Amino acid sequence: MASKRDDTLHAGEMRLPPLPGVESTRKIQVRRHGPDRRVVVPTLRVVAGRDMLRYVTLHDSDDVVIGRDEGGSLVLDDASVSRRHARVTSLADGSFRVQDLGSTNGTAINGTPVESAELRPGDHLEIGQVALRLDLLSLEEVEHLQSVIERLESNNRDPLTGLLNRVWLDDELPVHLAAATRLGVDYSCLFVDIDSFKQVNDTFGHQVGDDVLVGVARILMVGVRETDACVRYGGEELLMFLHGTPESGAIEVGERVRRAIEGHDWARTNPGLRVTASLGVAGVRAGESVKEWINRADRALYAAKAAGRNRVMRAT
């Protein structure tokens, strides 16, 4: 999780820990907007593709260089990105300016190619084929984003999606389940399956199919707490385990995730692409094994598929 605010810093500043693709410790001049004086952090975040969720924060009078060069502020791995592709400058008046650095595949804002132009919150910045968006995030949102990335980079992870793999499912989940059972703590499983995934592969190709898996995995990770777990079960099947959450609460989480997947801007992954998912939910029963628990969530998923897909069904 991101480190807490350092009290030795000046008021209105914080430090964030390093993360993949972002230069180490950055000082942020946070802005306060609106009558509630809510602290916000201008943040450029990748919204599609293999680099999805990678981000960099912007602060006053500073330059951020984006490209494939490891020495840049935001490192992107996509082959369409030049080594030093573009620069984003934060100006003293609170505005932001983008300058293309002579890249091979160009820089665009909201689909319009630019050499140098103003970048506003909510704008999409296209670096080659990589889409980013400038958002004003709260400190809590930045910390959560940092936490998600750290978990995606930790051990026992599926190499494509960054989710936990079957090793965690076989070795660690039984321990967590036993502890929850002993303490009388609720625990729920969500079985997630991407709808018509074979059709996605057949229509758009396996590269896009992989990007869809990565995107859905990131949406799941952003939608849960640090105490929850997301696992790649196999193919396009994903599992979520919500500690301390009864089946009724897991239904709400499932609906939120389902809406996030359906509402995601998949056209930025590939034009014409739409993605939905079906979910089955099962709260664990006393004395139930991991296999029995997952099987009940799987049966609920099957019911969601049979009922028309893009919906959440509960085991009970």
Short synopsis of the structure:
The protein has 316 residues and is α+β, with helices and mostly antiparallel strands. Helix content is 28%, strand content 30%.
Notes on the protein architecture:
The chain is of the alpha+beta class. Helices cover 28% and strands 30% of the residues. It has 7 helices and 19 strands. The strands form 4 sheets. Strands 3, 4, 5, 10, 11, 13 and 14 form a 7-stranded antiparallel β-sheet that branches. A 5-stranded mixed β-sheet has the order 7-6-8-9-12, with no helix packed on it. Strands 16-17-15-18-19 form a 5-stranded mixed β-sheet. The longest helix is centred in the last third of the chain and has 17 residues, at 206-222.
Summarize the amount of helix as a percent range: 25-40%
β-strand number: 19
If you average the pLDDT, what whole number results? Answer: 86
What structural class is derived from the secondary structure elements? alpha+beta
Reading the helices and strands in chain order gives EEEEEEEEEEEEEEHHHEHHEEHEHE
Q: What global shape is seen?
A: elongated
Strand content: 25-35%
- Rg, Cα atoms, Å: 21 Å
Oligomer: single chain
Can you count the helices? 7
Largest sheet, in brief, is: 7 strands, antiparallel
Low-confidence stretches: 1-37
N-to-C terminal Cα separation, in Å? 35 Å
